[in-house]
Design brief:
Length: 312
C-alpha cells in the first residue's frame, strides 16, 4: 500500500470495513447461539404437519427428526381433522429420544363431541395420544365468528355444558389426558375448565387464548390460570404483517399474567411459513428483546410444557 495521506485513508477504510464485518459475524453467531439455547430441551405443543388436507411444510416424521436435530425435548403433532396418536408412534421411531405426542381434535370428522373417539385414541399403540382439543374449525364459536352457514359442534347450550361434553371430560380425567380448549369462546372455555377441575382433570391449557375467535382478555386468562390451566401463546410467523403489534400484545399479557402460567408454542407447519423449530426460536428471540429473562423463557418453553404433558 502506498504511504502518505492517501495510503493512510485507504488503510483506515479497510480497517473499518473489516471491523464492521467482524461485528456482523459475531452478531450472527450470537443470534445462532441464542436460537440453539432457546430450542435446547424445548417442547412445542402446537405443531402442524403432513399428512393433512391442506399444504404443510413437513410431514410428521421429518418434523420430529428436525426437532431432534435442534436439541428439542418434544413436540405435539396437531391435526384439525385426523387423530395423530398413530403418527406420534411412528415419529418416535424416526427420532429416538424425542418426546412426540399426538391427540384428537373434536371436529365433525371424528363425530364432534365424541367420548368414544377419545377413548379409542388412548388405545392406539404406544399410548402417545395425549391431547384432546375441543372443536376448532368446526366449533360453533368459530363457525359463527366466520359467518358461515354449515354444521358445527357445540360444547354448551344456554350456558350449560352438554352431557356429551361432560362425558368427554370424564374420559380425559380417567386417562390423565390434556384438556385443550380449541376454538370455543372465552366463556365456554372457562366453563370447560371449571368442569375439568370438578372432574379431576390435572392437565389443562387454553388454546392460543388471544387469537381469534377466542380472544380472551387478561381477566379471563387469570381466571383460567386460577382453575389450573396454562395459557398458550402461539408465535406463528414473526415476519407476518401483523407480527409487531400482535407480539407486543402477547408480551404485555404475559407480563400481566405471569410466565409461571404461560406456554409458548409455534402453531407452525403451514407451507410458506417458517419451520416450527425456527419459528419457536424466533418467538423466543422477540420476547427476549422485550425484556423476558432466560429463566422466564425457559419456564414458558421447557418447564411448563413438560408439566402439562406429565413429563419429569
Amino acid at each position: 500500500m502506498k504511504s502518505g495521506p492517501r495510503g493512510v485513508a485507504i488503510a483506515l477504510v479497510v480497517a473499518v470495513a473489516i471491523l464492521a464485518a467482524g461485528r456482523a459475524g459475531f452478531g450472527s453467531l450470537a443470534a445462532q447461539d441464542d436460537a440453539v439455547r432457546a430450542l435446547n430441551q424445548a417442547i412445542d405443543i402446537h405443531v402442524h404437519s403432513d399428512p393433512d388436507n391442506v399444504p404443510r411444510s413437513l410431514d410428521g416424521l421429518d418434523v420430529a427428526k428436525l426437532a431432534q436435530s435442534k436439541g428439542m425435548r418434544g413436540i405435539v403433532l396437531k391435526n384439525h381433522y385426523d387423530p395423530t396418536a398413530g403418527l406420534a408412534f411412528l415419529a418416535r421411531k424416526e427420532a429416538p429420544g424425542l418426546e412426540v405426542f399426538g391427540g384428537i381434535d373434536l371436529n365433525l370428522t371424528v363425530g364432534g363431541m365424541n367420548p368414544v373417539a377419545v377413548e379409542h385414541m388412548t388405545q392406539v399403540a404406544g399410548g402417545w395420544g395425549r391431547f384432546v382439543w375441543m372443536s376448532t374449525f368446526d366449533a360453533e364459536n368459530q363457525v359463527r365468528y366466520s359467518k358461515e352457514k354449515r354444521p358445527f359442534v357445540s360444547v354448551a347450550r344456554n350456558g350449560t355444558l352438554l352431557p356429551a361434553t361432560r362425558d368427554v371430560i370424564a374420559v380425559i380425567s380417567r386417562h390423565r389426558l390434556v384438556l385443550a380448549t380449541g376454538h370455543v369462546s372465552a366463556p365456554e372455555a372457562l366453563m370447560l375448565l371449571r368442569e375439568g377441575r370438578q372432574q379431576g382433570v390435572t392437565h389443562m391449557v387454553v388454546t392460543h387464548a388471544m387469537n381469534a375467535p377466542i380472544q380472551m382478555d387478561v381477566s379471563q386468562m387469570r381466571e383460567a390460570a386460577a382453575l389450573g390451566a396454562f395459557i398458550e401463546f402461539a408465535g406463528a410467523s414473526t415476519a407476518s404483517a401483523d407480527a409487531g403489534p400482535r407480539l407486543e400484545r402477547y408480551a404485555q399479557a404475559i407480563r400481566a399474567l405471569g410466565p409461571q402460567f404461560t406456554i409458548l408454542s409455534s402453531d407452525l407447519g403451514q407451507k410458506g411459513n417458517p419451520l416450527p423449530p425456527d419459528g419457536l426460536a424466533a418467538f423466543v428471540a422477540v420476547l427476549r428483546s422485550k425484556g423476558f429473562t432466560e429463566q422466564e423463557l425457559d419456564r414458558m418453553t421447557k418447564q411448563n410444557p413438560a408439566m402439562l404433558l406429565g413429563l419429569p
